[in-house]
Design goal:
With 360 residues, the chain is an alpha+beta fold. The chain is built from nine helices and 20 strands.
């Protein structure tokens, strides 16, 4: 597992955190760090412990083991009201009897800010999230995306040092979600607020995060930048969770080559020893198909088993030589949809092949 915050003193440090509910250990010896101003996503499948981890950091749950430090101070035992964070919940949790301005001003009222200062801060926040013209509307009059912006403005009202986001976009449809995640990332960069977001959406994490913490069964599988996790995952679980992956059981390692069912493939970076449950893997987008495969290493002669048009790309399932290979090929490169049964030359570039342990 890799970690790191670029050598800077971490703003948030979680060490050895554990949480049990009865016989179920839902968070197991979790540790990671977040640098000031960094956007980190906690990513994992449902039930992996990611929301519980966020609640432990917020103080809504008490940890059974471990420490949480924020800005150098131990906050492990502090109640939520004494921690410096703003939070956006999956359901937004807006007050239905308060208008937009009333929702945003709530936290400012609780700290006794003067009326004029409150009004100025609310106006500033609504302008920041693009809702200046909706101040007197109630949550029921807003779209899901607008409600999300209100919840975000409310969370930022007291200028928290840490912003916590619990699946903030999951209730929105795909088009709105894609648009708002770009807005969210842009806003976070402008404000420079340290942000920790829980999500199960791989595309969401890959597009907004500086680093991703991948969780599985209460543990951290890997921590790293989106590009590192996608191109060099530590395990088959991480590789598959971050996107589509060709994976074949590795039968043997023969010097710088791997033996799998029906093929011997050259590796650019062969491991010194095989890990437990070794798999040979490559992303579908890294598979070279057609004329471009001629003269390349690791060529295979396969037949098209299926072809799916995805808009900008075509996903091909190719079979032969005891293998099934998925390939994502730009439609502009193919110019057509290959027919089922059509013979095609395929190359698996050595530099893109990965040997991964199957644990997790």
């Amino acid at each position: 597992m890799q970690d790191g915050t670029g050598g800077t003193t971490p703003y948030l440090s979680v060490q050895g955190l554990g949480k049990r509910y009865g016989a179920a250990q839902v968070v197991r010896d979790v540790g990671f760090e977040v640098a000031g101003g960094e956007f980190v996503c906690i990513l994992g499948p449902s039930g992996c412990g990611k929301t519980t981890l966020l609640r432990l950091i917020a103080g809504f749950e008490r940890a059974d083991a471990g420490t949480i430090r924020q800005a150098g101070a131990d906050i492990t035992a502090l109640p939520p009201e004494r921690r410096d964070f703003g939070i956006v919940f999956q359901s937004y949790a807006l007050f239905p009897n308060r208008d937009v301005a009333g929702n945003v001003v709530f936290g400012l009222e609780s700290v006794g800010m003067a009326r004029a200062a409150r009004a100025a801060r609310v106006a500033e926040l609504l302008a920041l999230v693009g809702l200046s013209d909706h101040a007197r509307k109630y949550p029921s009059q807003l779209s899901g995306g607008q409600q999300q912006r209100v919840a975000l403005a409310r969370a930022l009202a007291l200028q928290p040092g840490l912003l916590l986001l619990d699946e903030p976009l999951s209730a929105l449809d795909a088009n709105v979600r894609a648009h708002l995640r770009d807005e969210l990332r842009g806003l976070q960069r402008r404000l420079g607020v340290t942000t920790l977001m829980v999500t199960h959406d791989q595309a969401e994490a890959l597009s907004v995060a500086d680093r991703i913490v991948v969780m599985n069964a209460g543990r951290i599988e890997q921590v790293g930048s989106p590009s590192t996790l996608y191109t060099r995952p530590d395990s088959l679980f991480v590789g598959r969770f971050l996107g589509e992956l060709n994976a074949w059981k590795l039968a043997a390692l023969e010097g710088s080559a791997a033996r799998i069912a029906g093929a011997r493939l050259v590796l650019a970076d062969a491991p010194a020893a095989l890990p437990g449950e070794p798999w040979l893997c490559i992303r579908p987008a890294s598979v070279v198909v057609g004329g471009e495969a001629e003269g390349r290493e690791n060529r295979l002669s396969l037949q098209v088993a299926s072809a799916s048009f995805l808009g900008d790309a075509v996903r091909l399932a190719l079979e032969g030589e005891g293998l099934r290979v998925l390939a994502d090929v730009p439609f502009a490169r193919l110019g057509r949809i290959p027919a089922v049964g059509e013979a095609m030359t395929v190359a698996l570039p050595a530099a893109q092949l990965m040997v991964l342990p199957g644990h997790g």
